[in-house]
Amino acid sequence: MKYDFETVPDRRNIDSIKWNVKPGQLPMWIADMDFKVAPEIVKAMEKKIQLGAFGYEWPGDDYFKAVINWQKQEHGQDAKKDWMIFTTGVVPAISSIVRRVAHTGDNVLVQEPVYNIFYNSIENNGRHVLSNDLIFNGKEYQINWEDLEEKLANPLTTLMIFCNPHNPIGKVWTKNEVQKIAELCYKNHVVLLSDEIHGDLVREGIDYTPAYSVEGKAQNNVISLVSPSKTFNVAALHSATAIIPGDNLRNVVNRGLNSDEIAEPNLLAIPATIAAYEKGHEWLMELKLQLQKNFAYAGEEINAKIPEVYIIPSTATYLMWLDISKITSDSQKLVQYLKQETGLIVSAGNIYRGNGSSFIRINLACPMKLVEDGISRLISGIKKFQKNL
After folding, report:
1. What contacts 67, CB < 8 A, 6 or more positions away?
2. How far is the CA of 307 from the CAs of 47, 107, 376, 384, in angstroms?
3. Taking the mean position of all CA atoms in its chain, how far away is CA 96?
């Protein structure tokens, strides 16, 4: 490979959330990667810092052109500059949109189990979570369409937050599914807010479908949120783009982002994002190859040594969703045991609600030597846990 996916940057004692751990502990929970950032991005940052002057900034044509070209080259979709608004992050934008689109006391619809921070954005702002629970048949998840339409028709439901691709299950929704969801939202006067932060991380199979690319009148009722943060491991960069085809909806969102002061870039956001989107194609390709190797290794080890654990098939994200229902229905208890006995830190599925109490999530975006260590700890820890039941 041209790029380095073997070195583990030492992020202890540098304000890292993930690596604020005790000696001997191995964090594989929060969704950031333990790979070195693409050198093209680092070089762009260094050039900016060497300037030595950091006044107020605003994204120009070069920023939006980079986003447009990335969407076209990586996903085959045509996004227009007029549809785009810079924002400092997907989650801040979600919270702002919740405040602007949904009224206090309204329902915001999600599909559990789903990214836990959605709940913070909804409940902390005085809105109610209404879930269209995904159907789990013991092998994979599907949408409950009848339930979805019923809950979208509820007069108090004004916004749907759609995880596209889905975190934590790693599912890529089909083009037809995205189109149908958008049309149902439009029919029921519900704005569709699509979190597409993992959209670049489809490891294999069909690509994801951005919400902004849906056809017909429903297109004026959707918001796509994209960012280089997960793709290139630059979460602390605080750079994202809202893509909103509908003029009226875009104006509403734009006013909210500006009122909440989350529409102005920091000193590195623009050059780093441009570098990522203009020069990061090959790095991303190699990243996906490494992730596939990591998933293959983890899958083989888990299937061979703890067959009671079922791996949910997935084609997107770097997060593996594990069904532990044959071992326990209390994922929090198992996660605490793994941390105490082996030092491995993974995510308990109950925080994602739905049927998550029977699942755990593990982050495999790291050099193979960490994957090997983490999976070894997972296997030994679960075997000890079973013996002590």
Report:
1. 79, 84, 226, 241, 243, 273, 277
2. 51, 40, 14, 15
3. 18
Q: Quote the crossing angle between the two packed helices 281-305 and 368-387, to the nearest 10°.
A: 30
Span 46-93, pLDDT tens digits: 999 999 999 999 999 999 999 999 999 999 999 999 999 999 999 999
Single pTM value for the model: 0.98
The HSE-up count of residue 208 (CA atoms within 13 Å, CB side) is 29
Q: Which domain holds residue 184?
A: 53-279
CA-to-CA separations, 266 to 272, 346, 361, in angstroms, rounded: 11, 31, 32
Q: Do residues 81 and 65 touch, judged by C-beta distance below 8 A?
A: yes
Please report which helix (H) or strand (E) contains residue 293, including its range. helix 281-305
Angle between helices 61-75 and 269-279 (to 10 degrees): 30
Nearest to 114 by CA among 137, 128, 133: 133
Q: How many domains does the chain have?
A: 2
Categorize the per-residue pLDDT at 389 as very low, low, confident or very high, splitting at 50, 70 and 90.
confident
Count the Cβ atoms, other than its own, within 10 Å of residue 285.
13
Q: Where are the beta strands (DSSP E) in 169-221?
A: 191-195
> How far does the chain reach from its first CA to its final CA, in angstroms?
45
Residue 212 per-residue DSSP state: G
Q: Which of 279, 314, 342 is the last residue of a domain?
A: 279
Report long-range pairs for 127-133 (Cβ below 8 Å, ≥24 apart).
Answer: 127/98, 127/102, 127/103, 127/159, 128/156, 130/154, 130/157, 131/353, 131/354, 133/354, 133/355
Question: Is position 201 within any domain?
Answer: yes
Residues 142-196 have pLDDT tens digits of 999 999 999 999 999 999 999 999 999 999 999 999 999 999 999 999 999 999 9
